[in-house]
């Protein structure tokens, strides 16, 4: 069992930056593919980015603006979000994925981008 706790969400003006953090406890953190997903009101939950020890994947909509990173020693994963746009407004969820039957979600942290 892996517990995930996100932090760092909030309100920011367009063009601003936020850094999300996700702290994990339990489980072998290094074995998991860690990711960030987001869900806007009335929409499905979509991938933002995920990271393994070997590669990174980003949604096209965030490439060049967002950066995902992880610290296996601290059992944390981060999402640096720059040049934020109103369409980035959503609840952001941390995900730990081992295989199709084993994955865990955090409770989510809201991000609002508005002038």
Detailed description of the structure:
The structure is a single chain. This protein has 115 residues and is mainly beta. The chain is 0% helix and 56% strand. It contains no helices and eleven strands. It has strands spanning 3-7, 10-12, 18-25, 33-39, 45-51, 56-58, 66-71, 76-81, 90-99, 102-105, 109-113. It is globular.
Order of helices and strands: EEEEEEEEEEE
| Number of DSSP-assigned strands | 11
What is the global morphology?
globular
Q: Give the overall average pLDDT.
A: 96
Strand % is over 45%
Task: Tell me briefly what this model is.
With 115 residues, the protein is mainly beta. The protein contains no helices and 11 strands.
Task: Supply the key terms.
four-stranded antiparallel sheet, 56% strand, single chain, seven-stranded mixed sheet, 115 residues, mainly beta, 11 strands
SSE topology sketch:
Layout: E1 3-7, E2 10-12, E3 18-25, E4 33-39, E5 45-51, E6 56-58, E7 66-71, E8 76-81, E9 90-99, E10 102-105, E11 109-113
Parallel strand pairs: 2-11
Antiparallel strand pairs: 1-3, 3-8, 4-5, 4-9, 5-6, 7-8, 9-10, 9-11
């Amino acid at each position: 069992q892996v517990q995930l706790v996100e932090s760092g969400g909030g309100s920011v003006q367009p063009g601003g930056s936020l850094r999300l953090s996700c702290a994990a406890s339990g489980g072998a953190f290094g074995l998991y593919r860690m990711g960030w997903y987001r869900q806007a009101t009335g929409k499905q939950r979509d991938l933002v980015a995920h990271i393994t020890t070997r590669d990174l994947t980003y949604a096209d909509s965030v490439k060049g603006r967002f950066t995902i990173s992880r610290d296996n020693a601290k059992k944390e994963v981060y999402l640096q979000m720059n040049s934020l746009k109103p369409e980035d407004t959503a609840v952001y969820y941390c995900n730990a994925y081992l295989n199709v039957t084993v994955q865990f979600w955090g409770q989510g942290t809201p991000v609002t981008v508005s002038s």
